[in-house]
Input
Amino acid sequence: SAVISQKPSRDICQRGTSLTIQCQVDSQVTMMFWYRQQPGQSLTLIATANQGSEATYESGFVIDKFPISRPNLTFSTLTVSNMSPEDSSIYLCSAEGFGYTFGSGTRLTVV
Amino acid sequence: GNSVTQMEGPVTLSEEAFLTINCTYTATGYPSLFWYVQYPGEGLQLLLKATKADDKGSNKGFEATYRKETTSFHLEKGSVQVSDSAVYFCALSVPMNRDDKIIFGKGTRLHILP
Output
């Protein structure tokens, strides 16, 4: 399985600002996924990112709020834009491959 | 649509007790099934998986058998340890789906008392 490095591991941000989360995979993968885990909740898929095309967003998530980049087959970023306290969550990236490896997550607190 | 239902927690057991966490699924096609574990303050780790009916996934003393007739994938461990305290997520993916994403259950928090 792939190994994913995700950073930052945690951050505290002011409302109205933006944070970009990075995920680096140790092998080439076609699909990467971004999830949100709100406190005490399960994981909700934000979007699927394929290299060379625009990300596909799930219902309730929009590109203006969560822009995603996928410049190559080993890297992706998720930006949480114009943050509010409701965006306080753990954000995780995942790469395809049987079993879907996950990054260690970014714990975001918006104050 | 595809969905996963797992027993609500928290589940509290004494060390060395037998563990069962129930998981049932609804899926079109032929799903692959997973159990993930999330230790406090950490990300998600794949615990075990099964790809077809009657497959048994196992790891670290945990087991789960893919039961197509009951659409279930219950997680079991014969003797739990304090270090097993974590949140456990049952999940599925249907490889032929357009986007091949994983769908998670709501998670079950497990507390093991020494």
